[in-house]
Design brief:
single chain; 13 strands; 191 residues; alpha+beta; ten-stranded mixed sheet; three-stranded antiparallel sheet
């Protein structure tokens, strides 16, 4: 093999690697963090069982339309939401609900939503700052593909009533983004 062939082969290899890198980068789904971004990118807008609009990304994350008028007449609303019923169901809480501390949350999630029988729940204020983070605990054998009951109690304190978001995040010990999933529910956090 001549020196020119080695250089030509090496150059061809670099071009192929750059091409594959460019293809990988340009085919990755865009980052979506809210309903508006989801719609803007062109993902479908669907309706939940309760009539709320939500947008579903290609990796099955759902974002609820945040223009829902809060229900301030009944804290800890008692209807059920199942916006992501194929993976997680939240009992007795609906989008726009007014919540107070302590807030007990129950529901069911597919076994792969858990890791070591738990997954995190975040309560964020209107600025996206953490109000509290708790760990939901499985109430049964989580080593299954079936739904597993879970529960968690959130204790929090805010200086004034504010809007916020409850985020139920699939535990993903791998750190790989293709295994990420979450359900976000807008709420009104009461003082």
């Amino acid at each position: 093999m001549t020196k020119a062939n080695i250089i030509l082969g090496g150059s061809f290899g670099v071009v192929v690697l750059l091409l594959f890198g460019w293809i990988y980068i340009t085919t990755q789904p865009p980052t979506v963090t809210n309903f508006e971004e989801c719609v803007k990118i062109g993902y479908p807008v669907l309706k939940s069982d309760q009539g709320e609009s939500y947008c579903q990304t290609s990796d099955n994350r759902n974002f609820i339309k945040t223009s829902i008028k809060p229900d301030t007449t009944n804290t800890q609303n008692t209807s059920t939401t199942s916006l992501q019923s194929n993976k997680i169901i939240i009992d007795k809480l609906k989008p726009g609900a007014a919540i107070t501390s302590p807030l007990k949350i129950t529901g069911q999630a597919k076994g792969n939503w858990f890791f070591e029988s738990s997954f995190p729940i975040f309560l964020k204020d209107q600025d996206g700052q953490d109000v509290t983070i708790v760990i939901a605990q499985a109430q049964g054998d989580w080593m299954t593909t079936d739904f597993v009951p879970f529960e968690a109690t959130l204790n929090f304190k805010v200086a004034a009533d504010t809007t916020g978001t409850l985020i139920f995040r699939k535990d993903n010990p791998s750190g790989l983004p293709e295994h990420d999933d979450e359900l976000s529910i807008p709420v009104v956090i009461k003082k």
